[in-house]
UniProtKB/TrEMBL annotation:
One Gene Ontology term of the molecular function aspect: monoatomic cation transmembrane transporter activity
Presence of the UniProt keyword Cell membrane in the record: yes
Protein name, UniProt field: TrkH family potassium uptake protein
Entry keywords, A to Z: Cell membrane, Ion transport, Membrane, Transmembrane, Transmembrane helix, Transport
A GO cellular component entry from the record: plasma membrane
InterPro entries registered for this protein in UniProt: Cat_transpt
Transmembrane regions: 71-95, 121-142, 187-206, 226-245, 294-326, 347-368, 403-425
UniProt GO BP: metal ion transport
PANTHER family: KTR SYSTEM POTASSIUM UPTAKE PROTEIN B, TRK SYSTEM POTASSIUM UPTAKE PROTEIN TRKG-RELATED
Superkingdom in the source lineage: Bacteria
Annotated organism of origin: Aurantiacibacter rhizosphaerae
Membrane topology field: Multi-pass membrane protein
Length: 442
Protein backbone atom coordinates (compact mmCIF):
# COMPACT_ATOMS: atom_id res chain seq x y z
CA UNK A 1 0.00 0.00 0.00
CA UNK A 2 2.92 2.28 0.75
CA UNK A 3 4.28 1.66 -2.73
CA UNK A 4 1.02 2.76 -4.34
CA UNK A 5 1.01 5.98 -2.35
CA UNK A 6 4.64 6.67 -3.12
CA UNK A 7 5.73 5.65 -6.63
CA UNK A 8 9.24 6.89 -5.93
CA UNK A 9 9.74 4.11 -3.38
CA UNK A 10 8.04 1.68 -5.73
CA UNK A 11 10.64 2.09 -8.49
CA UNK A 12 13.62 0.62 -6.56
CA UNK A 13 11.35 -2.13 -5.21
CA UNK A 14 10.28 -3.13 -8.72
CA UNK A 15 13.87 -3.22 -9.88
CA UNK A 16 14.84 -5.43 -6.96
CA UNK A 17 11.93 -7.79 -7.62
CA UNK A 18 12.86 -8.12 -11.29
CA UNK A 19 16.51 -8.76 -10.37
CA UNK A 20 15.48 -11.41 -7.83
CA UNK A 21 13.24 -13.23 -10.32
CA UNK A 22 15.95 -13.02 -12.98
CA UNK A 23 18.54 -14.42 -10.60
CA UNK A 24 16.26 -17.33 -9.76
CA UNK A 25 15.58 -18.12 -13.43
CA UNK A 26 19.24 -17.89 -14.42
CA UNK A 27 20.14 -20.20 -11.53
CA UNK A 28 18.07 -23.02 -13.00
CA UNK A 29 20.11 -25.88 -14.55
CA UNK A 30 18.56 -25.51 -18.01
CA UNK A 31 19.49 -21.80 -18.13
CA UNK A 32 23.08 -22.73 -18.95
CA UNK A 33 24.42 -24.47 -22.03
CA UNK A 34 26.08 -27.09 -19.82
CA UNK A 35 22.75 -27.75 -18.05
CA UNK A 36 24.36 -27.17 -14.66
CA UNK A 37 23.24 -24.52 -12.22
CA UNK A 38 25.12 -21.24 -12.58
CA UNK A 39 26.83 -19.92 -9.44
CA UNK A 40 24.49 -17.60 -7.58
CA UNK A 41 26.88 -14.63 -7.97
CA UNK A 42 27.05 -15.19 -11.73
CA UNK A 43 23.26 -15.32 -12.00
CA UNK A 44 22.88 -12.31 -9.70
CA UNK A 45 25.44 -10.25 -11.63
CA UNK A 46 23.93 -11.12 -15.02
CA UNK A 47 20.38 -10.44 -13.84
CA UNK A 48 21.34 -7.06 -12.39
CA UNK A 49 23.25 -6.14 -15.52
CA UNK A 50 20.25 -7.05 -17.69
CA UNK A 51 17.57 -5.33 -15.59
CA UNK A 52 19.73 -2.22 -15.24
CA UNK A 53 20.32 -2.37 -19.03
CA UNK A 54 24.08 -2.20 -18.50
CA UNK A 55 25.60 -5.10 -20.43
CA UNK A 56 28.61 -5.94 -18.27
CA UNK A 57 29.12 -9.71 -18.14
CA UNK A 58 31.20 -12.16 -16.13
CA UNK A 59 30.51 -15.09 -18.50
CA UNK A 60 30.22 -15.25 -22.28
CA UNK A 61 26.54 -14.79 -23.14
CA UNK A 62 26.29 -16.96 -26.31
CA UNK A 63 28.36 -19.89 -25.03
CA UNK A 64 27.54 -19.97 -21.31
CA UNK A 65 23.78 -19.46 -21.40
CA UNK A 66 21.30 -21.76 -23.13
CA UNK A 67 18.49 -20.52 -25.36
CA UNK A 68 16.31 -20.32 -22.25
CA UNK A 69 18.99 -18.30 -20.46
CA UNK A 70 19.40 -15.91 -23.40
CA UNK A 71 15.64 -15.43 -23.70
CA UNK A 72 15.50 -14.72 -19.97
CA UNK A 73 18.24 -12.09 -20.36
CA UNK A 74 16.37 -10.50 -23.28
CA UNK A 75 13.15 -10.31 -21.27
CA UNK A 76 15.02 -8.83 -18.31
CA UNK A 77 16.57 -5.96 -20.24
CA UNK A 78 13.26 -5.32 -22.00
CA UNK A 79 11.67 -5.02 -18.56
CA UNK A 80 14.51 -2.86 -17.31
CA UNK A 81 14.33 -0.49 -20.25
CA UNK A 82 10.57 -0.21 -20.54
CA UNK A 83 8.40 -2.05 -18.07
CA UNK A 84 9.46 -0.94 -14.63
CA UNK A 85 9.49 2.83 -15.15
CA UNK A 86 6.14 2.75 -16.93
CA UNK A 87 4.67 0.40 -14.31
CA UNK A 88 5.67 2.82 -11.59
CA UNK A 89 3.91 5.64 -13.42
CA UNK A 90 0.76 3.57 -13.88
CA UNK A 91 0.71 2.55 -10.20
CA UNK A 92 0.97 6.19 -9.25
CA UNK A 93 -2.06 7.02 -11.39
CA UNK A 94 -4.03 4.03 -10.08
CA UNK A 95 -3.49 5.26 -6.56
CA UNK A 96 -5.20 8.50 -7.58
CA UNK A 97 -2.42 10.60 -6.16
CA UNK A 98 -0.20 11.32 -9.13
CA UNK A 99 3.17 12.77 -8.17
CA UNK A 100 3.51 15.43 -5.51
CA UNK A 101 5.64 18.54 -5.99
CA UNK A 102 8.45 17.23 -3.80
CA UNK A 103 8.47 13.90 -5.64
CA UNK A 104 8.48 15.57 -9.05
CA UNK A 105 11.50 17.65 -8.04
CA UNK A 106 13.28 14.66 -6.54
CA UNK A 107 12.90 12.55 -9.66
CA UNK A 108 13.26 15.23 -12.28
CA UNK A 109 16.55 13.77 -13.44
CA UNK A 110 14.84 10.50 -14.37
CA UNK A 111 11.51 11.75 -15.69
CA UNK A 112 12.11 15.44 -16.39
CA UNK A 113 8.94 16.83 -17.99
CA UNK A 114 6.74 13.81 -17.39
CA UNK A 115 3.65 14.84 -15.43
CA UNK A 116 0.86 12.61 -14.17
CA UNK A 117 -1.66 14.37 -16.41
CA UNK A 118 -0.04 13.24 -19.63
CA UNK A 119 1.36 9.92 -18.37
CA UNK A 120 -1.18 7.86 -20.31
CA UNK A 121 -0.25 9.64 -23.53
CA UNK A 122 3.43 9.07 -22.83
CA UNK A 123 2.87 5.38 -22.08
CA UNK A 124 1.12 4.97 -25.42
CA UNK A 125 4.00 6.73 -27.14
CA UNK A 126 6.55 4.54 -25.36
CA UNK A 127 4.72 1.36 -26.35
CA UNK A 128 4.32 2.45 -29.97
CA UNK A 129 7.94 3.49 -30.34
CA UNK A 130 9.12 0.28 -28.68
CA UNK A 131 7.18 -1.96 -31.05
CA UNK A 132 7.99 0.04 -34.18
CA UNK A 133 11.69 0.65 -33.58
CA UNK A 134 12.49 -2.82 -32.29
CA UNK A 135 10.52 -4.37 -35.17
CA UNK A 136 12.15 -2.28 -37.90
CA UNK A 137 15.67 -2.72 -36.52
CA UNK A 138 15.17 -6.46 -36.00
CA UNK A 139 14.02 -6.93 -39.60
CA UNK A 140 16.90 -4.85 -40.96
CA UNK A 141 19.52 -6.72 -38.95
CA UNK A 142 18.05 -10.17 -39.57
CA UNK A 143 17.83 -9.58 -43.31
CA UNK A 144 21.43 -8.40 -43.48
CA UNK A 145 22.72 -11.27 -41.33
CA UNK A 146 20.84 -13.83 -43.41
CA UNK A 147 21.75 -12.55 -46.86
CA UNK A 148 25.30 -11.32 -46.29
CA UNK A 149 26.72 -13.06 -43.23
CA UNK A 150 25.94 -16.70 -43.90
CA UNK A 151 23.34 -17.26 -41.18
CA UNK A 152 20.31 -19.48 -41.53
CA UNK A 153 16.96 -17.65 -41.46
CA UNK A 154 16.31 -18.87 -37.90
CA UNK A 155 19.75 -17.80 -36.65
CA UNK A 156 19.45 -14.43 -38.34
CA UNK A 157 15.96 -13.85 -36.94
CA UNK A 158 17.07 -14.58 -33.38
CA UNK A 159 20.29 -12.57 -33.59
CA UNK A 160 18.50 -9.69 -35.28
CA UNK A 161 15.77 -9.62 -32.64
CA UNK A 162 18.19 -9.93 -29.73
CA UNK A 163 20.43 -7.11 -30.96
CA UNK A 164 17.44 -4.90 -31.84
CA UNK A 165 15.88 -5.20 -28.38
CA UNK A 166 19.30 -4.81 -26.75
CA UNK A 167 20.05 -1.68 -28.80
CA UNK A 168 16.63 -0.12 -28.21
CA UNK A 169 16.96 -0.61 -24.46
CA UNK A 170 20.62 0.48 -24.52
CA UNK A 171 21.49 -2.85 -22.90
CA UNK A 172 24.66 -3.75 -24.82
CA UNK A 173 24.15 -7.52 -24.57
CA UNK A 174 25.10 -9.48 -27.67
CA UNK A 175 24.74 -13.04 -28.90
CA UNK A 176 28.31 -12.82 -30.21
CA UNK A 177 31.34 -13.32 -27.99
CA UNK A 178 33.07 -10.30 -29.54
CA UNK A 179 29.95 -8.08 -29.39
CA UNK A 180 29.67 -6.55 -32.90
CA UNK A 181 33.37 -6.52 -33.79
CA UNK A 182 32.62 -8.99 -36.56
CA UNK A 183 30.52 -6.33 -38.29
CA UNK A 184 32.97 -3.43 -38.03
CA UNK A 185 32.97 -2.97 -41.81
CA UNK A 186 29.20 -3.32 -42.28
CA UNK A 187 27.29 -0.03 -42.08
CA UNK A 188 23.99 -1.91 -42.52
CA UNK A 189 24.53 -3.64 -39.19
CA UNK A 190 26.17 -0.86 -37.21
CA UNK A 191 23.91 1.85 -38.66
CA UNK A 192 20.55 0.53 -37.40
CA UNK A 193 22.05 -0.22 -33.99
CA UNK A 194 23.40 3.33 -33.76
CA UNK A 195 20.04 4.83 -34.75
CA UNK A 196 18.13 2.80 -32.16
CA UNK A 197 20.58 3.74 -29.41
CA UNK A 198 20.55 7.46 -30.23
CA UNK A 199 16.76 7.59 -30.44
CA UNK A 200 16.05 6.02 -27.07
CA UNK A 201 19.00 7.77 -25.42
CA UNK A 202 17.22 11.08 -26.10
CA UNK A 203 14.51 10.13 -23.62
CA UNK A 204 10.77 9.83 -24.01
CA UNK A 205 9.97 13.42 -22.95
CA UNK A 206 11.94 14.60 -25.97
CA UNK A 207 10.05 12.22 -28.23
CA UNK A 208 6.76 13.44 -26.76
CA UNK A 209 7.76 17.06 -27.34
CA UNK A 210 8.79 16.39 -30.93
CA UNK A 211 5.57 14.49 -31.56
CA UNK A 212 3.54 17.41 -30.22
CA UNK A 213 5.52 20.27 -31.76
CA UNK A 214 7.23 18.73 -34.75
CA UNK A 215 10.77 19.82 -35.56
CA UNK A 216 10.14 23.46 -34.73
CA UNK A 217 13.05 24.60 -32.58
CA UNK A 218 11.16 27.63 -31.28
CA UNK A 219 8.29 25.50 -29.96
CA UNK A 220 10.48 22.96 -28.22
CA UNK A 221 10.81 23.00 -24.45
CA UNK A 222 14.12 23.97 -22.90
CA UNK A 223 14.62 20.35 -21.87
CA UNK A 224 14.31 19.17 -25.47
CA UNK A 225 16.59 21.90 -26.77
CA UNK A 226 19.33 21.09 -24.27
CA UNK A 227 19.02 17.34 -24.81
CA UNK A 228 19.08 17.49 -28.63
CA UNK A 229 21.80 20.14 -28.89
CA UNK A 230 23.85 18.56 -26.13
CA UNK A 231 23.58 15.10 -27.66
CA UNK A 232 24.73 16.42 -31.03
CA UNK A 233 27.68 18.24 -29.47
CA UNK A 234 28.78 15.22 -27.45
CA UNK A 235 28.47 12.86 -30.41
CA UNK A 236 30.59 15.19 -32.53
CA UNK A 237 33.14 15.60 -29.76
CA UNK A 238 33.38 11.84 -29.27
CA UNK A 239 33.63 11.13 -32.98
CA UNK A 240 36.44 13.61 -33.64
CA UNK A 241 38.35 12.67 -30.49
CA UNK A 242 38.24 8.94 -31.13
CA UNK A 243 39.00 9.30 -34.85
CA UNK A 244 42.06 11.46 -34.20
CA UNK A 245 43.38 9.53 -31.19
CA UNK A 246 42.92 6.06 -32.69
CA UNK A 247 43.66 6.81 -36.37
CA UNK A 248 47.03 5.01 -36.39
CA UNK A 249 46.46 2.65 -33.45
CA UNK A 250 47.22 -0.87 -34.78
CA UNK A 251 44.91 -2.38 -32.13
CA UNK A 252 41.83 -0.41 -33.23
CA UNK A 253 41.41 1.88 -36.26
CA UNK A 254 44.95 1.61 -37.64
CA UNK A 255 44.54 -1.30 -40.10
CA UNK A 256 41.14 -0.13 -41.43
CA UNK A 257 40.28 1.68 -44.64
CA UNK A 258 39.24 5.34 -44.28
CA UNK A 259 35.54 4.57 -44.61
CA UNK A 260 35.68 1.94 -41.88
CA UNK A 261 37.66 4.25 -39.63
CA UNK A 262 34.96 6.89 -39.93
CA UNK A 263 32.17 4.35 -39.39
CA UNK A 264 33.73 2.81 -36.28
CA UNK A 265 34.70 6.15 -34.77
CA UNK A 266 31.11 7.28 -35.24
CA UNK A 267 29.78 4.02 -33.79
CA UNK A 268 31.97 4.25 -30.74
CA UNK A 269 31.11 7.89 -30.14
CA UNK A 270 27.53 6.66 -29.61
CA UNK A 271 28.18 3.60 -27.47
CA UNK A 272 29.92 5.15 -24.41
CA UNK A 273 26.91 7.42 -23.98
CA UNK A 274 24.88 4.44 -22.75
CA UNK A 275 24.75 1.37 -24.98
CA UNK A 276 27.78 -0.85 -24.46
CA UNK A 277 28.18 -2.52 -27.85
CA UNK A 278 31.73 -2.40 -29.15
CA UNK A 279 33.02 -2.77 -32.68
CA UNK A 280 36.56 -1.95 -31.50
CA UNK A 281 38.73 -3.57 -28.84
CA UNK A 282 38.23 -1.24 -25.87
CA UNK A 283 41.24 -2.78 -24.13
CA UNK A 284 43.40 -1.58 -27.04
CA UNK A 285 42.44 2.09 -26.74
CA UNK A 286 45.06 4.74 -26.08
CA UNK A 287 44.92 6.42 -22.67
CA UNK A 288 43.54 9.65 -24.16
CA UNK A 289 40.69 7.71 -25.74
CA UNK A 290 39.88 6.13 -22.40
CA UNK A 291 39.73 9.62 -20.90
CA UNK A 292 37.21 10.68 -23.55
CA UNK A 293 35.20 7.56 -22.72
CA UNK A 294 35.26 8.40 -19.02
CA UNK A 295 33.61 11.73 -19.78
CA UNK A 296 31.06 10.41 -22.27
CA UNK A 297 30.03 7.55 -20.00
CA UNK A 298 29.74 9.78 -16.94
CA UNK A 299 27.45 12.22 -18.76
CA UNK A 300 25.29 9.54 -20.39
CA UNK A 301 22.12 10.31 -22.37
CA UNK A 302 18.77 12.01 -21.97
CA UNK A 303 16.43 11.84 -19.00
CA UNK A 304 13.44 9.47 -18.79
CA UNK A 305 14.81 7.14 -21.43
CA UNK A 306 16.94 4.02 -21.34
CA UNK A 307 20.23 5.90 -21.00
CA UNK A 308 22.36 6.08 -17.88
CA UNK A 309 24.88 8.55 -16.53
CA UNK A 310 24.13 11.82 -14.78
CA UNK A 311 22.22 12.85 -17.95
CA UNK A 312 22.89 15.45 -20.63
CA UNK A 313 20.68 18.09 -19.03
CA UNK A 314 22.43 17.73 -15.67
CA UNK A 315 25.83 18.23 -17.28
CA UNK A 316 24.80 21.30 -19.26
CA UNK A 317 23.04 22.89 -16.29
CA UNK A 318 26.32 22.59 -14.36
CA UNK A 319 28.25 23.88 -17.39
CA UNK A 320 25.93 26.90 -17.55
CA UNK A 321 26.41 27.56 -13.82
CA UNK A 322 30.20 27.57 -14.22
CA UNK A 323 29.98 29.75 -17.33
CA UNK A 324 27.75 32.28 -15.57
CA UNK A 325 30.21 32.49 -12.68
CA UNK A 326 33.12 33.01 -15.04
CA UNK A 327 31.22 35.80 -16.78
CA UNK A 328 30.12 37.34 -13.52
CA UNK A 329 26.43 36.91 -14.24
CA UNK A 330 23.84 36.55 -11.51
CA UNK A 331 21.65 33.95 -13.25
CA UNK A 332 22.65 30.72 -14.98
CA UNK A 333 20.79 29.59 -18.07
CA UNK A 334 20.88 28.70 -21.72
CA UNK A 335 18.85 29.46 -24.85
CA UNK A 336 17.50 32.67 -23.30
CA UNK A 337 16.07 30.87 -20.28
CA UNK A 338 17.40 30.87 -16.73
CA UNK A 339 17.48 27.98 -14.28
CA UNK A 340 15.89 28.02 -10.85
CA UNK A 341 18.04 27.57 -7.76
CA UNK A 342 16.37 24.22 -6.98
CA UNK A 343 17.38 22.83 -10.39
CA UNK A 344 20.93 24.07 -9.94
CA UNK A 345 21.22 22.41 -6.51
CA UNK A 346 19.74 19.20 -7.83
CA UNK A 347 22.16 19.05 -10.77
CA UNK A 348 25.16 19.66 -8.55
CA UNK A 349 23.91 17.07 -6.04
CA UNK A 350 23.48 14.39 -8.70
CA UNK A 351 26.94 15.00 -10.17
CA UNK A 352 28.69 15.09 -6.79
CA UNK A 353 26.90 11.96 -5.54
CA UNK A 354 27.77 10.11 -8.74
CA UNK A 355 31.42 11.15 -8.60
CA UNK A 356 31.63 10.18 -4.94
CA UNK A 357 30.18 6.72 -5.56
CA UNK A 358 32.54 6.11 -8.47
CA UNK A 359 35.56 7.33 -6.51
CA UNK A 360 34.73 5.22 -3.46
CA UNK A 361 34.05 2.11 -5.56
CA UNK A 362 37.24 2.54 -7.58
CA UNK A 363 39.31 2.99 -4.43
CA UNK A 364 37.84 -0.12 -2.80
CA UNK A 365 38.30 -2.37 -5.84
CA UNK A 366 41.86 -1.09 -6.31
CA UNK A 367 42.58 -2.02 -2.69
CA UNK A 368 41.47 -5.64 -3.11
CA UNK A 369 42.86 -6.41 -6.58
CA UNK A 370 46.00 -6.03 -8.67
CA UNK A 371 44.17 -4.68 -11.70
CA UNK A 372 45.26 -1.46 -13.40
CA UNK A 373 43.69 1.64 -11.89
CA UNK A 374 42.61 3.06 -15.25
CA UNK A 375 40.79 -0.20 -16.06
CA UNK A 376 39.06 -0.23 -12.68
CA UNK A 377 37.97 3.38 -13.12
CA UNK A 378 36.64 2.55 -16.58
CA UNK A 379 34.69 -0.38 -15.14
CA UNK A 380 33.12 1.58 -12.28
CA UNK A 381 32.06 4.49 -14.48
CA UNK A 382 30.65 2.04 -17.02
CA UNK A 383 28.70 0.26 -14.28
CA UNK A 384 27.31 3.40 -12.66
CA UNK A 385 26.41 4.93 -16.03
CA UNK A 386 24.87 1.58 -17.09
CA UNK A 387 26.99 1.63 -20.25
CA UNK A 388 28.40 -1.89 -20.33
CA UNK A 389 31.71 -1.23 -22.06
CA UNK A 390 34.70 -2.88 -20.45
CA UNK A 391 38.43 -3.18 -20.93
CA UNK A 392 37.97 -6.89 -20.24
CA UNK A 393 38.44 -7.07 -16.47
CA UNK A 394 34.86 -7.82 -15.37
CA UNK A 395 35.31 -11.55 -14.96
CA UNK A 396 38.68 -11.01 -13.22
CA UNK A 397 37.19 -8.93 -10.42
CA UNK A 398 37.16 -10.63 -6.99
CA UNK A 399 33.68 -11.59 -5.69
CA UNK A 400 33.40 -8.52 -3.46
CA UNK A 401 34.48 -6.37 -6.41
CA UNK A 402 31.68 -7.86 -8.49
CA UNK A 403 29.23 -7.07 -5.70
CA UNK A 404 30.38 -3.45 -5.80
CA UNK A 405 29.78 -3.38 -9.55
CA UNK A 406 26.31 -4.86 -8.98
CA UNK A 407 25.51 -2.10 -6.49
CA UNK A 408 26.76 0.55 -8.91
CA UNK A 409 24.60 -0.81 -11.73
CA UNK A 410 21.53 -0.79 -9.52
CA UNK A 411 22.09 2.71 -8.15
CA UNK A 412 23.06 4.01 -11.56
CA UNK A 413 19.87 2.72 -13.17
CA UNK A 414 17.45 3.74 -10.44
CA UNK A 415 19.10 7.11 -10.10
CA UNK A 416 20.92 8.68 -7.18
CA UNK A 417 18.14 11.12 -6.39
CA UNK A 418 15.46 8.41 -6.65
CA UNK A 419 17.38 6.17 -4.24
CA UNK A 420 17.91 9.03 -1.81
CA UNK A 421 14.20 9.87 -1.92
CA UNK A 422 13.17 6.23 -1.49
CA UNK A 423 15.33 5.91 1.61
CA UNK A 424 14.18 9.20 3.10
CA UNK A 425 11.32 9.14 5.54
CA UNK A 426 9.05 12.14 5.81
CA UNK A 427 11.52 14.91 5.23
CA UNK A 428 10.05 18.33 5.95
CA UNK A 429 11.32 21.82 5.22
CA UNK A 430 12.29 23.81 8.28
CA UNK A 431 10.08 26.76 9.14
CA UNK A 432 13.15 28.90 9.81
CA UNK A 433 16.45 29.83 8.12
CA UNK A 434 19.85 30.46 9.68
CA UNK A 435 21.62 33.80 9.23
CA UNK A 436 23.66 34.05 6.03
CA UNK A 437 27.44 34.29 6.19
CA UNK A 438 30.02 33.93 3.45
CA UNK A 439 33.17 31.81 3.44
CA UNK A 440 36.29 32.06 1.32
CA UNK A 441 36.13 29.83 -1.77
CA UNK A 442 39.13 28.92 -3.86
Amino acid sequence: MLGLRNPIRLIPALFLCAIAVGTLLLSLPFATAQETSAPILTAFFTSTSAVSVTGLIVVDTPTYWSVFGQVTILVLFQIGGFGIMTAATMFGLMAGRGFGLRQRMATQVERSRLESGDAVSVLKLVLAITIIVEGVVAIALATRMWLFHGMTPAEAAWDGLFHAVSAFNNAGFSTHSDSVMGYQNDVYILGPIMCAVILTALGFPVMQDIRANGFSWRRWSLHTKITVAGTGALLLFGFVSILVAEWNNPATLGPMAIGSKVLNAAFHSVMPRTAGFNSLDVGGFHDETLMVNYLLMFIGGGSAGTAGGIKVTTFFVIFAIVLSEVRGRRDAGIFNRRFGSALERQSLSVAVMAAALILASTTYIASISELALQDILFETISAFATVGLSTGITADLPPTGQLVIIALMFVGRVGTITVATALALEARDRSYRYPEENVIVG
